[in-house]
Structure formats: C-alpha cells, structure tokens
Design a protein that fits this description.
82 residues, mainly alpha, 62% helix, flat
Length: 82
C-alpha cells in the first residue's frame, strides 16, 4: 500500500481515533489507572519517585562506564585533534 494514499493515512490514524473515542466515553476514569502512579500516602509516593530517579541515574552511570571500558581501556581510544 502506498504510504501517501488517503487509505493508508486513515488506517494509520484509526488507533489514535479509537483511543480518543474511548477516552471520551471513559466516565469512571478506568483508562487513567494505568497511566498514573498511585500511592496510599504522600511519603510512599515520594519514596517511589525518588527511587525511580536514582535507578535511572544509576543506569546512566553504568552505560557511561561500559562505554568508557569498551572504547578507552580496550584500545579503541579516539583522540580529538585540533
């Protein structure tokens, strides 16, 4: 199917249209339950958010260290020449 055809564009947009219609008809907010983190207390919500932030930070540090290990220590050093 040609990606520039009207039919292709219509079929591609249907999932968004369907989600939008479902959101309009979601009177009890059931679709939002999976989107937002809910916690019984403010302290627990803060704990979960802070833990998530530090896990992401740790992942970034691990990726950087792996990059350094693979590229610099193993002899694949790239030096900038100015």
């Amino acid at each position: 199917m040609n990606e520039n055809s009207k039919t292709f564009k219509l079929i591609k947009s249907l999932p968004s249209f369907e989600k939008g219609m479902n959101r309009i008809l979601d009177f009890y907010g059931d679709l939002d339950k999976d989107i937002y983190n809910t916690s019984p207390t403010q302290e627990e919500a803060d704990y979960i958010a802070l833990k998530s932030d530090w896990e992401a930070t740790g992942d970034d540090i691990r990726k950087a260290l792996n990059h350094i290990t693979l590229n610099c220590i193993n002899g694949n050093r790239r030096t900038k020449r100015g």
